[in-house]
């Protein structure tokens, strides 16, 4: 009739009935009686249909007796910076460099561009020696004073506990300079 694999795959199982008397009369969709000698019923999973057998909880799978505390591991790598980005030290370093290089500066297109590159490189070199686990970003801007406005803004998403920035500006008779240094901690 049906193979055993087909019976396992189907959602209903087929069981033969031994006598005609025990077969209940069923009607199909058209109202006539079924003359089938097999009774169709829903498949059962487990031993729910067998009398005298009931499912029992298996305590060995629950593991109540062998409950262990969760293991806690300590981090083996450095989470916080040892020398944190100290704003006062960085600001004083920038002020010293501006006193040395920018006092008495006359704006000139060729000299000013060279000065910005020199200041940014020197700042980055000094700060990288002090803070080895920080990414240092130095932004140096020099502009000529011509009765005009200058607006500069920065926006970022960062870790406010470890990251910081310093912003300094200064003016002389013919030019202004703005130095922004960002220290971003590398995890």
UniProtKB/TrEMBL annotation:
Pfam families in alphabetical order: Tctex-1
Domain of life where this protein originates: Eukaryota
Gene3D superfamilies noted in UniProt: Tctex-1
Chain positions covered by the region annotation Disordered: 1-33
Record-stated family: Belongs to the dynein light chain Tctex-type family.
Protein name per Swiss-Prot or TrEMBL: Uncharacterized protein
């Amino acid at each position: 009739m049906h193979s055993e694999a087909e019976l396992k795959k189907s959602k209903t199982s087929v069981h033969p009935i031994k006598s005609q008397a025990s077969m209940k009369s069923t009607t199909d969709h058209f109202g006539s009686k079924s003359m089938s000698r097999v009774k169709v019923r829903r498949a059962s999973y487990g031993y729910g249909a067998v009398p005298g057998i009931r499912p029992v909880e298996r305590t060995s799978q629950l593991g109540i007796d062998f409950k262990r505390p969760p293991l806690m591991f300590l981090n083996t790598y450095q989470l916080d910076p040892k020398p944190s980005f100290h704003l006062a030290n960085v600001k004083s370093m920038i002020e010293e460099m501006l006193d040395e290089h920018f006092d008495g500066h006359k704006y000139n297109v060729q000299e000013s561009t060279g000065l910005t590159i020199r200041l940014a490189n020197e700042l980055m070199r000094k700060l990288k020696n002090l803070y080895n686990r920080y990414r240092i970003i130095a932004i140096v801007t020099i502009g000529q004073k011509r009765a005009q406005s200058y607006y500069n803004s920065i926006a970022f998403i960062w870790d406010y506990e470890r990251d910081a920035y310093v912003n300094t500006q200064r003016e002389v008779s013919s030019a202004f300079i703005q130095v922004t240094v960002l220290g971003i901690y590398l995890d």
